[in-house]
Design a protein that fits this description.
Elements lengths: L4 E3 L2 E2 L4 E2 L6 E3 L5 H16 L9 E3 L5 H10 L3 E3 L3 H4 L3 H15 L5 H4 L8
Parallel strand pairs: 5-6
Antiparallel strand pairs: 1-4, 2-3
Helix pairs in contact: 1-2, 2-4
This protein binds flavin mononucleotide.
Length: 122
C-alpha cells in the first residue's frame, strides 16, 4: 500500500482537463498521510483477526528516513520508494541511513521492534 490516488486538473485557458487521459495518478509527498492511514488501518484489521496476517509493504510519498519510520510505526514491515527517485536516484541508500539513525535515536535495536508501535496495544 498504496498505489497512486486518482487526480484531475483543469487547464483554465483551454478550460479542458490538462491530461490527455482526463485523470491521472497522483503520487509523492501529498499522498503520504493517506498511505500511512491505509497501513495503520490494515495493520489494525490484521491484529483484530479480521483479515489474514501478511507483511505490509508501505509506499506513498516517502522522501526521508523519518517518512519511512512513520510507515513502520503504523505497521509496515518494509517500505518502497517511487516518485522521489526521479529527483534523487540515490534516495534508497540515503533513506536507509536516515531510517537506521531514526530507529537508533528512539532506542530501537531492530526494525522489528518499531513495526506497529503507533498502535495503542503495542
Ligand atoms: C510514473 C509512475 C509509474 C507507476 N507505475 C506503476 C505500475 O506500473 N504498477 C503499480 O502497481 N504502480 C505503479 N505506480 C505507483 C507506485 O508504485 C507507487 O505506489 C506510487 O507512486 C506511490 O509511491 P510514491 O509516492 O513513492 O511514488 C507508478 C507510479 C509512478 C509515479
Amino acid at each position: 500500500m498504496i498505489n497512486t490516488l486518482l487526480g484531475l486538473t483543469v487547464d483554465t485557458e483551454t478550460m479542458r482537463p490538462h491530461l490527455a487521459g482526463t485523470t491521472g495518478g497522483l503520487s509523492g509527498p501529498a499522498i503520504r498521510p493517506v498511505a500511512v492511514r491505509c497501513v495503520y488501518q490494515v495493520y489494525a484489521a490484521m491484529r483484530a483477526g479480521a483479515v489474514r496476517q501478511v507483511p505490509i509493504l508501505g509506499m506513498g510519498g516517502i522522501t526521508s528516513g523519518r517518512d519511512a519510520l512513520e510507515f513502520v510505526l503504523a505497521g509496515a514491515s518494509g517500505v518502497a520508494l517511487g516518485t522521489v527517485l526521479f529527483n534523487d536516484p540515490g534516495a534508497p541508500l540515503r533513506v536507509l541511513d536516515e531510517l537506521e539513525s531514526a530507529l537508533a535515536a528512539r532506542d530501537f535495536t531492530s526494525l522489528q521492534q518499531a513495526i506497529g508501535r503507533a498502535h495503542p496495544t503495542n
